Amino acid sequence: MKKGLINFLLLISLFYISCQKKNERVKSNEETFIPVTVIKPVIGEIQLEIKLSSQIEGNPDVLVYGPIPGYYLKSLKNEGDYVEKGEVILLLERREYGLEFEPVKIEAPVSGKISYFKFDKGEFVSPQRPLARIYGDREYKVKLYLPAEYSKYVTYGKQVKIYVNSEEFKGVIREISVTSDPFTGNFEFRAFFTPNKKILPGTPCEVEIPVLKKENVLKIPSKCVLGTAKKSVFVVENGVSKRVPVITGIESGGFVEIIDGLTQNDLVVLKGVEILREGMKVKILNGDLK
């Protein structure tokens, strides 16, 4: 009796172990799918925009220098006053042993508001040091420098965006240099804008310039693209990931132009691309794009 019970328990144990191994084999045979979301390339326009740092200048904006060395005597206009061209704005004292001179009158070379550089009375001022700055505040300008590869797309009348302390102003290109800088090879552009609030010359700003616009191009989100020198994307074909090399063009606004490698019907992996490898089985979460 006791021996029969032992045999029965042994059979139960063997049956349990057999079931466990069968379950393990079933689990091991289950396929693993990587969840991804996909998009299809779209046809649209894409515009390359360049951001440059600059600073605000008045129009006009002129530094005032003395004609000869002298000693600062006094200013005749207050800071922020509007002065007319030819108006005397300050006096310098000329000193030479045994000789007497009338104070040297410094005149405004242009009309505008005046801002002085600070000097103590009697301080020596060389002709190389500016005495004042005269600027127009009805219109401001910013100077921009672009290499030839981009400058050819910037024309008279092109609108730009000027950001001053997070506030946006609309500017227009009105001056373009006809020759490049001999040292940098860049071309100078000047954009002008009318402020709707008080801005001081010298204030730093950011300028956004649209330099190239293309229409009817194939484009995808930039984050789909892998690599730098050799670029590629993952597409889904028959439920399997496939790495496809692509040639890209303009990149702007979170999208990149696809010159070669994709069609409008391809399912390009948008999310999940970081963990994919060639030949992995995937599960498309946004099934409406299948």
In short:
With 290 residues, this protein is mainly beta. It has 2 helices and 22 strands.
Key structural traits:
rod-shaped, 9-stranded antiparallel sheet, 290 residues, 2 helices, single chain, 4-stranded antiparallel sheet, mainly beta
Tell me what you see in this structure:
The chain is mainly beta and 290 residues long. It has helices at 2-29, 148-151, and strands spanning 34-39, 42-55, 57-58, 61-65, 70-75, 82-83, 88-93, 104-107, 112-116, 124-125, 130-135, 140-146, 159-164, 167-176, 187-193, 204-221, 232-237, 240-245, 247-252, 255-260, 268-271, 282-284. It contains two helices and 22 strands. Strands 2, 3, 12, 13, 14, 15, 16, 19 and 20 form a nine-stranded antiparallel β-sheet that branches.
Spatial shape: rod-shaped
> What average pLDDT do the residues reach?
88
Low-confidence stretches: none
Distinct helical segment count: 2
How much strand content do the residues show?
over 45%
List the helices and strands and how they pair.
Layout: H1 2-29, E1 34-39, E2 42-55, E3 57-58, E4 61-65, E5 70-75, E6 82-83, E7 88-93, E8 104-107, E9 112-116, E10 124-125, E11 130-135, E12 140-146, H2 148-151, E13 159-164, E14 167-176, E15 187-193, E16 204-221, E17 232-237, E18 240-245, E19 247-252, E20 255-260, E21 268-271, E22 282-284
Parallel strand pairs: 1-22
Antiparallel strand pairs: 1-21, 2-16, 3-12, 4-11, 5-7, 5-10, 6-9, 7-8, 9-11, 12-15, 13-14, 13-16, 14-15, 16-20, 17-18, 19-20
